[in-house]
Amino acid sequence: MTIENKAEVEAIAHGIRRRVLEHTVLNNGGYLSQACSAAEILASLYGGLAKITPLEKPLDPRPFLGVPSETFKSYVTGAEFHGRQGPELDRIFMSPAHYALVIYAALIETKRLSESSLEKFNKDGSTVEMIGAEHSPGFETTTGSLAQALSQASGVAMARKFKKETGNVWVFMSDGEFQEGQTWEALAASSYHKLDNLKVIVDVNKNQCDGPMESVMSIEPLKQRVESFGWDVSVVDGNSIDEIFAAGTAKTDKPKIILCYTDPIRDIPILQERAPTLHYVRFSSPAEREKYKEFLEAWV
Amino acid sequence: MGYEIVNRPHVENFINWSKDKPKVLVVTADLTNSCEVGKWRDIYPERYISMGMAEQNMVSFAAGLAREGFEPWLHTFAVFLYRRPFDQLHLSVAYPNLPVRFVGFLPGITTPGGVTHQAIDDINALRGVPNMTILETGDATEVESVLDVAHKIDGPVYIRMLRGEVSRIFPKAEAMQFNQARVLSNGFDVTVISSGISTEEALRAIPALQEHGVSVQHLHISTLKPFDDPQVIESLKSAKHGIISMENHSVIGGLGSAVADLMAEHGIGKKLIKIGLKDTYAHGASQKYLLQKYGLGARSLIEATEKLMDKDLKISEEELSQTRVIDVHSTAKAEAL
Lengths: 300, 337
Description:
The complex is a heterodimer of chains A (300) and B (337).
Chain A: H1 6-27, E1 29-30, H2 32-49, E2 91-94, H3 100-109, H4 148-162, E3 169-174, H5 181-192, E4 198-204, E5 207-208, E6 211-212, H6 222-227, E7 232-237, H7 241-249, E8 256-261, E9 281-282, H8 286-298
Chain B: E1 4-7, H1 9-18, E2 24-28, H2 38-43, E3 48-50, H3 55-67, E4 71-77, H4 78-82, H5 86-94, E5 101-105, H6 122-127, E6 133-136, H7 140-151, E7 157-161, E8 165-168, E9 182-185, E10 190-195, H8 198-211, E11 216-221, E12 223-225, H9 230-238, E13 242-250, H10 255-265, E14 272-277, H11 287-293, H12 298-309
Parallel strand pairs in B: 2-3, 2-4, 4-5, 5-7, 6-7, 10-11, 10-13, 13-14
Antiparallel strand pairs in B: 1-8, 6-12, 9-11
Helix pairs in contact in B: 1-7, 3-5, 8-12
């Protein structure tokens, strides 16, 4: 297949990495490796794979006005950055909430979130939180306790079928979540209930907080495991826009999962020096920070 | 004293109630008949969702359904609704304040299922969950009318539900009212605040107390959170010798603790005796045996009153109203458990 706007999607991916690197250098830390691994996945989702409407102009993030409650009914979720909702339109649910910075960067690159929003990142009273909650840009649910998004989105997918809506429900997940029992409960349930409007896209970067997943708890062979739960599984190079689009648009009558095997230091090779622990970057010295700054400045 | 015994009041009542409510769904985890919704499933198969024995997924999945405008009524044993999926209950449902109904069967020691099946700390766990409303049924009338109370709440609701052979203590026409206690007797010596099946136990003891000259203010509670009914506050203030709470739950964090909070907040400096499980697990046995063994029954209320009044009332066992004995193998129970 050919992707009509491939150059544009590539530019989004590049912009995500650049923006996250900039922010990491500026703030002496950030979830940088997740931008390396997931940039093409998020660029694809926001660049045409998920059917969502554009915004007229980028929105500023709302200040934190309170949590949902009996007395705060006008609460608005971060799904407002995904455009209007309609029966024929797709929905995107973000599972790994610690990817927030990468997601905000993707929203900025796709003209959904204003450029200056990252100045509010992790600032008191802001919704541009370090770990996104459902008021944060791009988030429709609260999923930072990992593995809950797939179940929630499955419920939404079933409800949309009840309502005869034709739009798909996308879930962006990280591979570490396949260590959680709830993920397997959800995979079983959505397959049993034939939720063929469910599309899951996973950043398999093979890393987690304690280090490489192989040193913590293996989830392989992931393809065979998920397939045996009744899912249509594609394994792709997760840094290839062509492969992501091909898998994401293939027809299927089962719930679909795309296992995107990704490179956690993609385009920022100096990250290799921090291996094997890539989960969160906090510079160990002014010299290291300077090195990343120079790398950023030299980057076209 | 004998109450009318209603067999499986939830079965037909819930079917009729759901008829004109197309957004009401039933979601279960392999305890459909045990939670009296087997017939509901057969009548409304398109609104029935089987989730298998996977409560974490069930709770988050229900949140997704609720976000799309449906009203999922989760039916399983209480222990499986708040213990295993507590994180999901918090983050998927309570935080976004979604109208998911947790219908928890087998509260406290109402089951011979032992420690795995006895929800003895659910009120304690759930009072700390923001946005959560907690209701408890004490008889067949409340099993029937709790549906309307929960339905009107635009947020998550947890219900301690009764099943099988259920006494009708309150007239059928006197429906449960949200955050409104039932005043069952008026008096000034002691105030008794009871909930759930403990109310029936209290009602076995109170006539005997009255015979022996004790004036008892007795309130039945069906809304455990919020807990700020002015009638309760007034009744706490008016007790001359002290207050007794009586619940089918641990004495930590349940009705008794809610009463203690209220007393402290309103500066009501009186003695409080909390009848309930005294920071212990129970075990698998009949309800009658467990009520007696763990000091949750009518006799405990007599003893607590004597303690508050510093008086031996000399009430014999024969003076307590007849105990209702439920046959463990009754036909009203669809399953062994």
